[in-house]
Each structure stands twice: as C-alpha cells, then as structure tokens.
C-alpha cells in the first residue's frame, strides 16, 4: 500500500526514543528539532502517491498492487532507466540534499533480494526472512535507514579488542525467539525520520569478531533502541528565508545504541558469520544498487549546484567575463561527468540471474572520483561568489525593520534582481555550500560510501586488469631483444 504524506507523519508517532539537547523526544513530527525534515519526507510520500505521478513513481507488483519504484527489481536496461527516472524525480524535490531519503536503503534491500541465492546457500531460513522482509517493507511503503559501520574508537583494533567489547553492536545472547543485541553503531542518517533500521557491518571482520557479524532489521521504536542525535540544524535556523535548505532538509545523523534489543528470528538475515556479512553486499547486487542510487542523487544535486553557480555569476554581473565563462564550463563538464558515469554504468550493465545490474567498476570509478570532485566543485563555487555569500543581512528581521531595510536596499544591488532577490539567492547559495548544513554535506559526500581507501579498493577489485595486462603482454610479445640484436 502506498503511503500518503499524512499517513507517513502519523506512522512516525510511534514512541521512538531520541536524545538531543539533554531531552528525550518521542514525537518527531511536533519536535522543533525534526518536524520540518519530517514534513519534507511527507512531501516525498505525497508525490509518490499522487495519481498523476503513478506511472512515473510506481510499478505493479506480482500481487497486482502498486509500489514505489524504489523497490522495483529491474529485469532489463529499459526497466533500470525507468526506475532511475523515478529516483531522479524524487531527488529533484530536495535538490539531492537528503542523502538517505527512502530510495537509498530500499535500493540496498532490493539489491540483496536480487541475490537471494547467496542467502539460500547460506541458510534457507535466513533467505526466507530476507525475502519476507523485502515484501513487507515494499508493501508497507517503509522508509528504511541503515547503520553498517562500527563506531570510531580505536581503528587500529578489531571490535572484540576495544576497551569495551560492546562499543560496537554485537550479539550478547540468542534463544528460541531471536538475538539480543548490545552496543553502538554509526551513523544513522535519516534515523529519526525512518520507520525501520537495517543493521549490519560492512567493514571487513576478522576471526574473533563473529558477534558483530550480524544483519537484521528492526523498527525505530524497538524496545531498548536509543537514538543519539547530533545537533539539529533545523532548530538553529530561524526561518525558511535565511536557511532555505537547513530549515527543511536536515535529515539528521544519529549514533544508535542497542541497549539489549531483542531481534526476532524472522528479522535476522545473517547470524555471526563474518564471510556472509561481506557476501550479502558484494556477492549480491546490494552494494552496487545502493551506491548507484547515490550517484543518481549526486547527478541531480550537481544539476542544482550548476544552477546556483550560473545564478551567482549573473547576480554579481560577472557572467560575461571570459574566465568566469570558462569556470562555468569547467563546472558544467564536472556535472556532465557525473551524468556520464550514471548513463555508462546503466548501459554497461549485465544480467545477474533474471535481474539487470549496473556495471560495478564504473560505479566504483564514479565513487572514487566524485568523493574528490565534490570538494573541488564547492571550492570553485565559493571562488565564483566572493564575499557575496557573507555580505548579507543577519535575518529576515532586518527586512522587517524599516530603518535597516532602507540600508539593505542601498547596499544589496545586482544587475539582474532587486535587493530582496539578491539576499534571497545568496542565502540559498550559502546554505548549500557554506553553512553548517552545507559543510556537513561536504563531509557526507566524502564519507557516506566509506573512506577513500575503501572506495579505491573497490575500484581495484572490480577493474578488468586481465584485459589491460593482456594488451601490454601482446605488445611485449611483438618484439624481443634477440631479434633486435640480430638486426645489428
Ligand atoms: C555525514 C555522514 C553521514 C553518514 N551516514 C551514514 C549512514 O547513514 N549509515 C552508516 O552506516 N554510516 C554512515 N556514515 C558513516 C560512514 O559510512 C563512515 O564515515 C565511513 O564509512 C568512513 O568510516 P569512518 O568515519 O569510521 O572513518 P575511518 O574508517 O575511521 O577513516 C577515517 C580516516 O582514517 C584513515 N584510515 C582509517 N582506517 C584506515 C585504514 N584501514 N587504512 C588507511 N587509512 C585509514 C583514512 O585517512 C580515513 O579517511 C556517515 C558518515 C557521515 C560523515
């Protein structure tokens, strides 16, 4: 069943325990720290369930119901592209600023479900749990987030050798009903807004780390689950005009602590198996699908950033300067590169059983390069803007005071807009690239898919080295020292 925005908002009122600013918040939808972000997610739900968007955003499941395309399991290139168009349309609603909108983890679980045979070979009961969960989440329009990284503490030691063996979430007990989980996980982006969380470990685990080699999904209001929120940018932003992005799209990031949380067997996908923990991502299409979604999102975000860059130059009257045109051309080429990667990984995809999967190496190439690219793009945009990002009145209250408003009109000028338009535009640009919200985005784009050594290893692992070294070998085979000496 497709949820509407109102149904989504109601479904969040489930008594989950969020800790922030010394308080416990149990209703996200009315909290000044989270309510606007919840309303933004509700907007996504309304868009998916609007009758006029049915063909774009939904597909018919095997039961004859309609589900959001984020759950679709494409069986051809054409279906993959159809699904991507839905992701693009959804992402445009937030300009790519909600990194863990519901399409991210849905893509992961859909990809995992496309590789069910890997779970069948591991344990048919766990495979059944995964297949049932996929259908349950799809049929109930669930918003899932995930925590797949152990908290930073001492990265030189495995989880079982940390000062506290339960700094990272692991199994403390198992019985006929399921597992009991204790410990922490980073970093549940969207955790306060999601219905459920998928919990596992994507970091390679060694012998001795079996208790941490788990994979399961539970509701955000599960007994014993504590959501430890970072500061709220939404709360710090007094109004929409001054922080048009932070005030609406602060999806939040939270450490999760599992205070002896009970996980029933029908929600357990991997139990204390280090090899299977890695295989669930890399032997199935899960890792490729979740990160393909992330590149589609980035493609849309780059388009939005290009709009900001061009308007920056227009607003400052620098648009006709040849070096500025070249800078915009360079930025546009970088945006084009992200799009080329998305189109390339789709076109170069392959069948995994009955499903069509984007090309893994082009995906990992995109990840490695875009992790570096984002900071470069932001820096170039700051360079284009100069002090205009800072030469701004403190808040809408300044406009509301006639004495100050008079001087704003005298000092905020542009060849293409009035003083209000100039301030409005630069406040948006600053929120995207410079405010605390914008700065968190730079960190997000650098790390959401793992540190650079991780993505570079994926690129190394998936490149067709045999083809390249074969070419070199054929070249080397075409000549020899002996025959060259013979020519002397
Ligand atoms: C804004 C934001 C949102 C996030 N959202 C989520 C989320 O929704 N779900 C989730 O599960 N995770 C999330 N994460 C966590 C993210 O997956 C991790 O930040 C990422 O995997 C890197 O892990 P780390 O932060 O522990 O960094 P580390 O692995 O500790 O790496 C930090 C740096 O230390 C060095 N380093 C560490 N280990 C090595 C090594 N073995 N070899 C070489 N160099 C090393 C490198 O310089 C590296 O860049 C989020 C992170 C951020 C910043």
UniProtKB/TrEMBL annotation:
One annotated GO molecular function: oxidoreductase activity, acting on the CH-CH group of donors
Which Pfam families does the UniProt record give?
HpaB, HpaB_N
Q: Where is the HpaB/PvcC/4-BUDH C-terminal domain?
A: 277-476
Tell me the residue numbers annotated for binding FAD: 152-155, 189
- Top-level taxon of origin: Bacteria
Provide the HpaB/PvcC/4-BUDH N-terminal domain boundaries: 4-270
Gene3D superfamilies for the chain: 4-hydroxybutyryl-coa dehydratase, domain 1 (1.10.3140.10), Butyryl-CoA Dehydrogenase, subunit A, domain 2 (2.40.110.10), Butyryl-CoA Dehydrogenase, subunit A, domain 3 (1.20.140.10)
Ordered alphabetically, the record's keywords are:
FAD, Flavoprotein, Monooxygenase, Oxidoreductase
The protein's name in its UniProt record: 4-hydroxyphenylacetate 3-monooxygenase
- Protein species of origin: Paenirhodobacter populi
